[in-house]
Design a protein that fits this description.
The chain is mainly alpha-helical and 484 residues long. The chain has 20 helices and 5 strands.
């Protein structure tokens, strides 16, 4: 390799320096590095949702500081990567281009086209797995086919698996000047990723620290606290028992290998039990399974995995019901608390996600794709595989899905997983003075209880927009027609 020829380092969903194969490969060349991020427009890619755009801005800001700290520079482009990357390679005389692989069909197609063009220019384009434990095509059942059920998939993954050693964070990157004739870089603010009028991101700023350092801190906090008792506590909305690593994973600020090494070391050090760690790693496994599904089913976010659900009688969505669900005004406190947590923080507790999704699909009879789109826009961790696979799981149309006739009772679910009503009181403050015995069914409270709590149903808090038993029977009847 000619030492003076620069190499290209293209960041995508891998916004970190440690255990980052593309970064490691670029640094190892000893050549000057042109590091860049492209806000991709064109190529048929799904645009980021609002909350993801907010996170992306701050993650890129943190990555730029980290790269500058080791001697490099991160620059920004916007447009069609299939045109921009080859143009940058041609004008810079780059010898190599490095990036992390992606797994959506259109992204694979675009990356393949880009790689082919680069090779025509004599540029060696090398891509790496920096996002998953396993490449999705490497895990198959005994018949050689993709898995459709999670448990045997995860059992196959776990059998004898030991993640490779972590790649070190490079101590130095040699920066390279941007070629004069290359596509002109833009500033991060000019990408307009942040909300302005109105600025709705105050709750996100209070809740999160995007970036590699924030991810590392979040993992350390999890191991030092919530991991102990995770197996029992993870479903309880009123406890801080989950890792809160999902947005960091979605943007590649931490790798699943780093997480695996850290939590298994915690067991070896006596800081965590194997039971809690195994349960937590199975959640990492669901993410792997979701990418396995996405790779083999490119339309996972828009097409029923189980084709018989194509005939399900969703009907036209009731606009008032959908709006009430989105705003956390359904009259069912656990659903409303979850939807408000989502709006305020860009996140929702996983158990509550299932409850809220079930309510939309089965109580309101609204197509799961409508909910998937809303979560895509409002979740900081809106992941192209996880989001789609999880919505299909709740709907009953997905792989290894919960059966459609499993309909969450939002009253019982609230009483079970937020027994004192603390989660509801946090996000539905108008009910904060209600006794826990009635907080999940305020319509059963006596007039005296409502008055003492300052609650007027239909005014300060809505009446239920549907009656649970009637909604359940309607959903079951629709499913019975589908079976016929």
């Amino acid at each position: 390799m000619v030492a003076s020829a620069p190499v290209l380092l293209w960041f995508r969903d891998d916004l970190r320096l440690a255990d980052q194969p593309a970064v490691h490969a670029a640094a190892k060349t000893g050549a000057p590095v042109l590091a860049f991020y492209i806000l991709e427009e064109g190529g048929g890619l799904r645009p980021f949702g609002g909350a993801s755009r907010w996170w992306l801005h701050h993650s890129l800001e943190a990555l730029a500081r980290d790269i500058e700290g080791i001697g490099g520079e991160l620059l920004f482009l916007r447009g069609d990567a299939r045109e921009l990357v080859p143009a940058l390679a041609r004008t810079s005389g780059a010898s190599h281009a490095f990036w992390t692989r992606r797994y959506g069909a259109r992204k694979i197609e675009n990356d393949t086209q880009t790689k082919t063009t680069l090779k025509e220019f004599g540029v060696a384009a090398e891509s790496y797995n920096g996002q998953l434990l396993f490449e999705p095509w490497t895990i198959n059942n005994k018949a050689g086919h993709p898995f459709r059920v999670f448990t045997p998939f995860w059992r196959t993954v776990r059998e004898g698996y030991a993640p490779p050693a972590l790649l070190p964070r490079p101590k130095k990157l040699i920066g390279s000047s941007w070629p004069a004739k290359a596509p002109k870089p833009v500033t991060l603010p000019s990408l307009k990723l942040l909300p302005r009028k109105p600025d709705w991101a105050g709750g996100l700023r209070a809740a999160w620290t995007p970036g590699e350092a924030g991810a590392k801190k979040r993992l350390t906090h999890f191991i030092d606290g919530p991991l102990d008792g995770y197996a029992e506590g993870r479903d309880f909305a009123d406890r801080q028992s989950t890792s809160l690593l999902s947005p960091h994973l979605r943007f590649g600020e931490i790798s699943p290998r780093q997480i695996w090494h850290a939590v298994t070391h915690a067991v070896e050090a006596g800081k965590a039990t194997a039971r809690n760690v195994d349960k937590f790693l199975s959640e990492i496994g669901w993410r792997e399974f979701s990418y396995h599904l996405l790779f083999h089913n490119p339309d996972l976010a828009t097409k029923n995995f189980n084709a018989r659900f194509d005939d399900f009688p969703w009907g036209k969505a009731n606009a008032a019901h959908l709006r009430a669900w989105q705003k956390g005004q359904t009259g069912y406190p656990i659903v409303d608390a979850g939807m408000r947590e989502l709006w305020q923080t860009g996140y929702m507790h996983n158990r509550v996600r299932m409850i809220a999704a079930s309510f939309l699909i089965k109580h309101l009879m609204i197509d799961w794709r409508t909910g998937e789109e809303w979560f895509w826009d409002t979740l900081c961790d809106a992941d192209p595989a996880n989001n789609a696979a999880s919505w299909q799981w709740v709907a009953g149309s997905g792989a290894d899905a919960a059966p459609y006739f499993r309909i969450f009772n939002p009253i019982i679910q609230g009483e079970k997983f937020d027994p004192n009503g603390d989660y509801v009181r946090k996000y539905v403050p108008e009910l904060s003075k209600l006794d826990a015995k009635v907080i999940y069914k305020p319509w059963t409270a006596t007039p005296e209880q409502l008055q003492a709590a300052g609650v007027t149903l239909g005014r300060t808090y809505p009446e239920p927009i549907v009656e649970h038993n009637a909604a359940r029977e309607r959903a079951l009847a629709a499913f019975a027609k589908l079976k016929e």
